[in-house]
Amino acid sequence: MVEKHSVFFLLLCLTYILYVLLGAVVFSTLEQPYEDRLRSQLEALWSEFMASNPCVSEVALEEFLHKALLAKSFGVSFHRNVTEYTTKWDFVASIFFTGTTLTTIGYGHPFPISLGGKIFCLVYSIFGIPFTLSVLSITARNLLIFLRDKPIHHIQLRFNISRKKLEWLHAAILMCFLSIIFFFVPAIVFNVVEGNWDYVDALYFCFISLTTVGLGDYVPGEQSGQKMPDLYKLSVTCYLLLGLVAVLIIIEMLKSLLNFNQVFNIFLLGGEESRRTEGIEWVLPHDSEGPCMQPKPDETTRRRLTHSLSPDKTYGSINTS
What we know:
Blueprint: H1 4-52, H2 58-73, H3 91-102, H4 115-158, H5 163-194, H6 199-210, H7 229-257, H8 260-266, H9 271-276, E1 280-283, E2 294-297
Antiparallel strand pairs: 1-2
Helix pairs in contact: 3-7, 4-5, 4-7, 5-6, 5-7
């Protein structure tokens, strides 16, 4: 007989595969016509340029464009009408690159070119990424003490409200507040500062960044002529770090409300046996001021009283007195 956890796990994998295929179909349907239209426009522009400049070698032009686009991918602009030269690897830009790398956002613009830079990035990220994610996670959990646990405890002491209903209401209010502060308001700022980003583009950038997807199609601070670019990039780096903490807070609240651990155990092979072998269940006491945890003994591990210590009952034993 197949264990039910194996069936649930297979269904989970199948659902995920179908979800990935659905995304592939939708993206292909939406993006391929635009790609074909853009390619046709580029081919027409190429033909028009070659017809207007018959003395230009097509092979030489292709080689030049290849090298120019390669340099552009490294973050080096080939425009000659730029009045002010800006390097992509000054100290502030390097801070921005370090922050986006350690948070796994990784816009990919710029990226290390030298062999030494690539090796250092590899070693630096191996230790830095777990360290950064640990710091962000610990910060989010500490903030939850002041943003969720203590307010709920004090409200429950003052008002006779079910703790579960109070948790859902508090989570809804806090998630709306964090969404406004870290998604909708920053999108307005990016829309104003970047200039060529509309509000949807800016909101898309905030979501893609704070979910650590970081596609790199929108990178802040790359516009020429921006005022105080160093301060702007430092501000964006701070925003990304604080925004990731806010996202982790939302995730922790949702996990708590949806009993994520119990749902997660459904898909673990041998999950029932692992739960049976657990001797201690960690719970949050209702009468505590903070989120300190205390062990709750399982029914099978409770200590039973012997017959001689049980009050008022002899259980059929012979009284020798």
